[in-house]
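Hey, can you fold this?
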Amino acid sequence: MLGDEAMQLICGMLPPDGAKSGLRELTLSANPAITTKGWARLAIAVAHSSQLRVLNLDYNPLGDQIAGMLAVAVSSSRTLEVLDLEGTGLTNQSAQIFLDMVENYPTCLRVLVLAENSISPELQQQISDLLSEGEEDEDKEGGARGSGGVAREKTTWLPNSNSSSQMVLVTSGLGDSLLAETEM
């Protein structure tokens, strides 16, 4: 039940590149009181965050406009690997933007959860295939994307080995090949 004031404080925990350390994982599930202004503020912070690896925004009433802002943020981020947008009111319009992003621009994104939205299975599969292709290409020499020749940055995120956290596998809804380990 967070709102825009809380979002402003949270964005303060996502410092820009070169600043102090910040959050590596952020879960903001089911917060209907956050307005477009709050989500825009978060998108800007994500675009410039030097630490954030996992962003869970599932079950928020985001819609296509906010998803478009998030796509720009993800394409600007040099660290974000997992974005969960399950049940956020997205349509094929949003999916097309994300498809264009992963098809034509370098990104660290490895998992994009789009389940429980009004998005065609075909579009979800295309996005899934492109994200998987980027991982496969990185495993080969060179790290270049096959279809467009766009290089993808490879960022490895490992939880702090000194922590006593549990690892949980989260499925993306886009296929069994897209699994991400998130810290709980």
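Oh, and this one too while you're at it.
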Amino acid sequence: MSEHETLINLVERHDRDHGVREVRIELPFGVIAGKWWGPDNVRPILCLHGWQDNAGTFDTLIPLLPKHMSFLAIDLPGHGYSSRIPHGLSYQSMSVLSLLLAVMAEYGWKKVSLLGHSMGSVLYYVFAAIFPDKVDLLISLDAIKPQIYPVEFIIGRLIDATEQFMVADLRNQEKSEPPCYTYEEMIDRLHKATFKSISPETCPYLLHRNIKRSAKFPEKYYFTRDSRLKHFSGPPFSREVNLDLANRLNMPFLFIKATRSSYFEDKKYYDEVVEILKTNNPYFELYMVEGTHHVHLTNPERVAPIITKFLSKYWSKDEDVASKL
């Protein structure tokens, strides 16, 4: 057995050892895929990954969290095993709001508990602020809100992203196979593309749901995520909107920031939101941990105790869940 096949089997064995079940949620545009951890009869904490990542980002963290709780990590459209959106359309951040409501409706949840990383945290910030009565707790990893950028950056980004999106969309329609690499090259590319945030040892957990064997070169693989995602933009909110959203976040809220990770914006915008949360939300908690942007994946032992302590205070089993759980 080759080294890459051993690594692939490692991820599959990891899922079997932890009783992970693949989930498929049928929606009008296609399927939302996910990984369910824990008891079937407990409403899970809904986990949402970062930009161009997938549900595998939580593979090393969830096994360290309480076993009597459940977790459902989903792949957003175009990521992991979930369906892509139709040709000719671009990915829009705010469409995730209706997607989350659809997942809640699928299982009959009146409330939802949220755990997000990076882009997932940003989208959860918006969702929880818009629907605070639907969210009973929120955990964010290394990103807290939509970033604020200079006007000239936003305009330039829109011009470039729109043009590049058209190129990516045409490539999708041609159904040609993307560039392919050996598994070892895949690990190296992912490691370097994240500025070494993801360690080579943990790259397989993300690659597992993000690659496919080449039909042309059987010893090589290609990335399966939708290349249109490269030209995705987050919520284009103003500073004022971000502040108003912060004032609406009244649920238990845990934010864990990595020490060796960027704020992705001028830190003053981050600081003022954190100050509002500290002042107005008695259930807001902020922790700093040593590590990179993917510290929850590469060093989950630094993050898990903080999350476990938070959940021990604010999580309770939902007795009013749909029978289909």
